[in-house]
Input
Amino acid sequence: MTNNQAVLSWLEEMKKLCNPDNVVWIDGSEEQKKQLEDESVAEGELIRLNQEKLPGCFLHRTAENDVARVENRTFICTSKKEDAGPTNNWEDPKVMYAKLNALYKDSMVGRTMYVIPYMMGPYGSPFSKIGIELTDSRYVVLNMMIMTRVGKKVMEELGDSPDFVHCLHAKKDIDEENRYIVQFPEDNTIMSVNSGYGGNVLLGKKCFALRIASYMGWKEGWMAEHMLILGLENPQGEVKYIAAAFPSACGKTNLAMLIPPESLKGYKVWTVGDDIAWLRIGPDGRLWAINPEAGFFGVAPGTSSKTNPNALKTTLKNTIFTNVALDTSDNTVWWEGLDKPTPAHAIDWKGNEWTPDMGTKAAHPNSRFTAPASQCPCISSEFEAAGGVPISAIVFGGRRAKTAPLVYESFDWQHGVFVGATMASETTAAAAGAVGVVRRDPMAMIPFCGYNMANYFAHWLEMGKKIPNPPKIFHVNWFRLDDEGHFMWPGFGDNLRVLNWIIDRCEGKADAKKTAIGYLPNASDINVDGLDIDKATLEDLLSVDKAVWKEDVANQKEFFSQFGDDLPDGIKEELAALEARLSE
Ligand code: GTP
Ligand code: SPV
Ligand code: MN
Output
């Protein structure tokens, strides 16, 4: 498929290392896709679902020990340890290559190596970048065909250039003890071994589009962020774009596909992206964003026709479900929170018989759907726009039972960067480890920043100086709990009420009160028409408890201390200023 010498010689080297029986180039054709699907079904890798109800849909189950990203086995290998920083696992590249090469040695004997040329970003866009993933997993191939732009056309765009990200994945034995997800940002190389799960193996996603791309952005003056991108259309038909960073399983896909409540019918939300944004300064001095992906790898549990009907509709055809339950009555899928009657009998995510009385989860909490973005009923007309969309507001947010109010606005860019840098959120099932523990997760990038986070903060501060018309920066929290542990804010479609205040603030149309942490809306500034919420609850959601915030500042300081002298002055200034305001 190519005469590109850089590609061919790397492929030769990897073939020698892994020793596959065959090598198959992925051309992106429908015929090849069909063939891979048939082979996967025959091998038991995929289960073909009810083709009347879910045409082109399949179910896949991963190994029980392999259901989420593994942050403790994820490495950033730069020649200097300081360049990876204190929040990343680091190993000397030479040592890591040696370790990995031993693991990949002959790992594909008896298997086929698939060569997947893929593009992150629209064809012909100055934002876009190319990767080539070598993998012995058909499941990876079929997912990459949904999540990225794949095939011949990508090789044509690459031409003779050696400028592509080298990605090698081998399933090996799915051995947890020898599982590695390794980024070598200085070499444009990603190596993943002993996993078959999503973010660990679809190397275009977190590994390239965030870890490697954030490093590229640092060197080249742009940004790769864990952000959704949405267009908010008002009743006059004007569309404003918002990019929002929330940690994994904290509501990006849901917000990106929001359906307005009855009382705000004249508004419409258009989805540009649900997970990753690449941002550049445009010729007009604004910040412009593209979604480098072509599909959604979304959380299944909790997705219903009430919470996210657009996501549900997106997954009705050509979708791969991973680790959800199989409803054996009609060979369709089910998960907790789906508003379809609980099946009397199912096969759970582990492949075992399941009945509702068992009290176990039928779908894994991090079970997912992989669906083409083009099938989304609210996909933006700008989804393929080569230049991206202009961003009016950046929104940070997390899952916080207390502390953070429903919404606040930063005083300026530097303060906004500080607000992002002090984000915290309860951990979720998207990564292996404890769930529900509050941890600091700056810009929702703690698992994804491909370099020293102190330099990342500095890069954010620098970008602000270079953008003539920067977006305003906000913070939201949909997850405040009352004393009984119930969500205080209805969330989902009603989040539009908050987005409207955000856009109105960008246009100087909405009021706010100045507080120690930023500008907050007065209760009367949020449109609650048709919403059943009492004034006291809303005021509570829009309050700042200084004592609680002082505790948070102590925790922020502790977090920042690990960066030592590398912590930029802008962050130190904002920390001191916040502390002073809280003591006023
Ligand atoms: P990743 O794909 O892991 O990056 O996740 P994400 O940020 O796209 O999260 P997603 O939108 O899939 O939401 C994760 C979980 O949060 C789901 O179970 C949702 O039902 C729930 N959720 C999303 N939005 C809201 C909200 O506004 N309020 C409440 N209470 N829950 C929400
Ligand atoms: C996340 O965990 O933020 C995801 C899913 O979007 S994964 O691709 O597994 O990283
Ligand atoms: Mn994500």
Observations:
- Residues 77 and 91 are 5 Å apart (CA to CA).
- Residues 295-375 form a domain with the Phosphoenolpyruvate Carboxykinase; domain 2 fold (CATH 2.170.8.10).
- The first helix runs from residue 5 to 18.
- The chain has 16 helices and 30 strands.
